[in-house]
Amino acid sequence: MNLHLNDKNVLITGGSKGIGLATGTAFAAEGAHVTLVARTAEALASARDAIATKTGHTPKTVVADLGSDRGRETLHEQVETPDILVNNAGAIKAGGLSDLTMDDWREGWELKVFGYIHLCQLFYPDMAAREHGVILNIIGMGGRAVRPAYICGAAGNAALIGFTQALGAEAHASGVRVLGLNPSPTLTDRMSAFFKGKAKAELGDETRWEELIDPAKFPFGRPKTPQEVADFCAMMASPRVAYLNGTVVDMDGGGQWTGRI
């Protein structure tokens, strides 16, 4: 199916690895002009080369610290308003209420929660003025299936879910769509690195890390891949589903209903 994303300008934050890198690959494969944003030039260069090798399309890269107002404002000044903005940068620290300092809360929310909100505040008026655009916020299942051991992320993700739905309710009047996606745990480099360390400690061989992934803990017996998330992002942003707006989709394999997330 042609998703009609050819020549669309796509800006992806947190684009140097994991879901962000996979999302850049998916859009580039559809012929979009991709710009990746991350903090580290070396990681961005690696991501750029990987996407170019896989798709034949070389993305642009922008080094930016999106954990501050000024960093986000500088990004807005450096790039043209994209057709599609994918907010993906940020990770919120795990832990219970007594495990986290207020600095932990502020650090996690500054990059992800306030980062997403601020980038929408910067780019949405430009999209509304020209009467087209898509904003896709990659949020997380922590805001739906809340857990006390991830209380900071539960609160932050829940806030972004509400924000996305509220902005979507306004955006359609200007021809803009605002959407969200909640991935459950995904087999990114971060997850595989965790299991490799665990395998080295418990089995004495990090190459056996896949043995430690318990199929019983995941829908379909496995964690999903970053590319599965990325392909769905491309589908949601496609003009072929132009009536999809103001919604946040849970991509958890149905695990929230069985406790497998």
Describe this protein's structure:
- With 261 residues, the chain is α/β, with parallel strands linked by helices.
- Helix content is 43%, strand content 14%.
- The protein has eight helices and seven strands.
- A seven-stranded parallel sheet has the order 3-2-1-4-5-6-7, with helices on both faces.
- Helix 3 runs parallel beside helix 5 and helix 5 packs parallel to helix 6.
- The mean pLDDT is 95.
- Helix % is 40-55%
Strand order of the largest sheet: 3-2-1-4-5-6-7
Overall number of structural domains: 2
Biggest sheet record: 7 strands, parallel
Q: Report the strand count.
A: 7
CATH class of the largest domain: Alpha Beta
Gyration radius, rounded: 18 Å
Low-confidence stretches: none
Short account of what is shown:
The chain has 261 residues and is of the alpha/beta class. Helices cover 43% and strands 14% of the residues. The chain folds into 2 domains: 9-186 and 225-251, Rossmann fold; 192-223, no CATH class.
SSE topology sketch:
Layout: E1 9-13, H1 18-29, E2 33-38, H2 41-55, E3 60-63, H3 69-78, E4 84-87, H4 102-111, H5 113-130, E5 133-138, H6 151-171, E6 176-183, H7 189-203, H8 226-237, E7 248-251
Parallel strand pairs: 1-2, 1-4, 2-3, 4-5, 5-6, 6-7
